């Protein structure tokens, strides 16, 4: 059972102000205001805007963009695999007290249901600011009718990794994450117009950091010995497409799903054909299958963090640090020059 945690971070000094057109960025997803939800922007006792985030990537955006003007509560306790989150009646009730909710639809069914019933006026849904695609394995779906010509992402063969469920892991692509950041910034400015200039400036500063991160991934993965990597679950589809890589997942979109014997045989073939050196596991999900596969193939193991939560085991203190650790891990596994 998840326990709400609350953190405050110091305000981020804005580097510069967004262009005048920032007000047109994104569209805030609104639901009807319930009679007990309070007035958006009233904030808590200290005057801060009360923001509830569904899990770490949404929390990071809310804190970095909100700065000193927000008090952020996250529904997913550090160390809890967000796909498995279940909310207590108390947590569901507290959700209705938020001024703003920032979440990502399709990742946590219990959260989706609670938010739909919350009556909170300002609800920011991350996937509304970017496009979604289907990733995963053939075991997520028997067929994929919507992928169309997208299968041609420089693939020289088809291992089935482009077939699957609609993928919610948009935050692992810095470009898509920046699109979400832009939408969250606009939403906070609409919910708390008195501090709109600060939200806009903080948004611009964060987007600049994400742009730099994207440039580092582009340069760092431009020249590699192989383009294929094996992971525990299909979290890195957007990252792979962004940088011309091939993700091969042991499990599908859900990290707790068990691979079939046929899928494991397929991964054996992939590893041999594509000169794979490393099988990646995660910090929040079981590493048993990944380690067994690596042992069977005589491959190394490594950590590729899907950044669904920050813990003491994470290779960094925040999103940017862990993503750079992921880049280093990929460069090593893929034989980057």
Largest sheet properties: 5 strands, mixed
Return the average pLDDT rounded to an integer. 80
β-strand percent reads 5-15%
Structure annotation, total helices: 9
- What oligomeric assembly is this protein in? single chain
Distance between the termini: 45 Å
* N-to-C series of helices and strands: EEHEHEHEHHEHEHEHEH
In total, how many beta strands?
Answer: 9
Spatial ordering of strands, largest sheet? 1-3-2-4-5
| Helix content estimate | 25-40%
Could you name the ranges where pLDDT drops below 50 across 5 or more consecutive residues?
1-42, 139-164
Which structural class do the helices and strands define?
alpha/beta
Summarize this, please?
By secondary structure, this protein is of the alpha/beta class.
Question: Can you characterise this structure?
Answer:
The structure is a single chain. The chain has 337 residues and is an alpha/beta fold. It contains nine helices and nine strands. It has helices spanning 56-66, 89-95, 109-116, 174-191, 196-220, 237-242, 261-273, 288-297, 319-334, and strands at residues 5-7, 49-53, 70-74, 100-103, 122-125, 228-231, 246-249, 278-281, 300-303. The strands form three sheets. Strands 1-3-2-4-5 form a five-stranded mixed beta sheet, sandwiched between helices. It has a two-stranded parallel ribbon with strand order 6-7. Helix 3 links the parallel strand 4 and strand 5 (122-125). Helix 1 (56-66) crosses helix 4, helix 4 packs antiparallel against helix 5 and helix 5 (196-220) packs parallel to helix 9. The longest helix has 25 residues, at 196-220. It is globular, with a radius of gyration of 20 Å. 47% of the residues are buried.
């Amino acid at each position: 059972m998840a326990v709400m945690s609350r953190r405050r971070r110091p305000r981020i000094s804005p580097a510069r102000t967004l262009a005048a057109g920032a007000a047109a960025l994104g569209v805030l997803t609104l639901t009807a205001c319930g009679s007990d939800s309070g007035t958006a922007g009233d904030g808590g006792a200290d005057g801060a805007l009360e923001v509830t985030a569904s899990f770490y990537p949404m929390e990071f955006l809310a804190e970095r963009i909100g700065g000193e003007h927000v008090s952020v509560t996250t529904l997913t306790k550090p160390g809890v695999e967000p796909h498995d989150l279940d909310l207590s009646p108390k947590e569901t009730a507290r959700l209705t007290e938020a001024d703003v909710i920032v979440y990502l639809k399709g990742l946590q069914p219990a959260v989706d249901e609670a938010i739909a019933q919350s009556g909170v006026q300002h609800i920011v849904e991350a996937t509304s600011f970017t496009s979604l695609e289907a990733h995963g394995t053939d075991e997520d779906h028997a067929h994929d009718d919507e992928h169309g010509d997208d299968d041609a992402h420089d693939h020289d063969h088809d291992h089935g990794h482009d077939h699957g469920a609609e993928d919610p892991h948009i935050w692992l692509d810095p470009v898509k994450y920046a699109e979400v950041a832009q939408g969250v910034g606009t939403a906070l400015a609409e919910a708390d117009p008195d501090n709109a200039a600060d939200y806009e400036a903080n948004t611009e500063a964060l987007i600049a950091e994400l742009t730099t991160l994207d440039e580092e991934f582009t340069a760092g993965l431009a020249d590699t010995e192989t383009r294929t990597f094996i992971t525990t679950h299909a979290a890195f589809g957007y990252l792979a497409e962004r940088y011309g890589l091939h993700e091969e997942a042991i499990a599908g979109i859900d990290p707790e799903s068990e691979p079939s014997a046929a899928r494991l045989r397929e991964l054996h073939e992939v590893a041999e054909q594509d000169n794979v050196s490393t099988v990646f596991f995660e910090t929040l999900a079981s590493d048993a299958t990944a380690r067994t596969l690596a042992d069977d193939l005589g491959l190394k193991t490594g950590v590729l963090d899907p950044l669904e939560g920050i813990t003491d085991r994470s290779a960094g203190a925040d999103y940017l640090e862990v993503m750079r650790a992921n880049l280093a891990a990929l460069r090593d596994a893929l034989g980057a020059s």
